[in-house]
């Protein structure tokens, strides 16, 4: 006779889909193999499996004995970790990214507490892959890395001792995101915020947006609006402006079209 709880047990072991498979956790230049293994364990306990490592100090860290020991049963997540040379490679194909930082930044998107930030993640994951980005244990994320991300989060820890281990920070974000994905009453799942595209509107990928910035910067230089020798953080400010808007693919194409015509007119005028 079939046990009455067998269906519940099967459901509990069913692979999670949706946001769980569309979310990547990115560790930028992790120094300690043990932290990478512990991060893999943190992901698996929350139902996630996509781990991306940007230029880890130990190149084959997923094979490192300390990493395997700290993974403690999450060997599959660790072994499947995707290793890439740059953050641009880690974000390729994603439509939204969240950078976790402990420091106040002059430029970049305004920071949010994790619980608020993951609600935004719930809205954005309907459009495709998203990424959560964590910095090096000692130096965190560079300003350039932060500016490459769409949104910024900060864990409001004890001000007198706010230092979190890398794997602990991953655990906090993975836990909050799990709750948000599983909650049927999640505001992000039911009520899109003003200015957020619906699920049928294709968002621009990280690659598309980076190409737009290059195109726009070249156009501003051609107009003599931007002096490459003295840029005065203009592109950083523009990145922050566009990061707040949740760029759609068509909007990126419009900006690039404007930049293309500026460059064409500039060349014509120089003849």
Helix and strand run? HHEHEHHEHEEHEHEHHHHH
Radius of gyration: 21 Å
Helical proportion?
40-55%
- Distance between the ends: 87 Å
Side-by-side strand order of the widest sheet: 3-2-1-6-4-7-5
Structural class: alpha/beta
Tally the helices: 13
Low-confidence stretches: 1-15, 184-195
Beta-strand content bin: 5-15%
Principal-axes geometry comes out as: elongated
Largest sheet: 7 strands, parallel
User: Using DSSP, what is the number of strands?
Assistant: 7
The overall pLDDT average reads 84
Kindly describe this structure.
By secondary structure, the chain is α/β, with parallel strands linked by helices. The chain is 48% helix and 11% strand. It has 13 helices and 7 strands. The chain has helices at residues 6-13, 19-22, 33-45, 65-71, 75-79, 87-91, 114-124, 143-148, 166-182, 187-190, 206-222, 234-243, 249-270; strands spanning 23-28, 50-54, 82-84, 96-100, 111-112, 130-134, 151-153. The chain has a 7-stranded parallel sheet with strand order 3-2-1-6-4-7-5. Helix 3 (33-45) runs parallel beside helix 4 (65-71), helix 7 packs across helix 9 (166-182) and helix 11 (206-222) runs parallel beside helix 13. The chain starts with 5 loop residues before the first helix and ends with a helix.
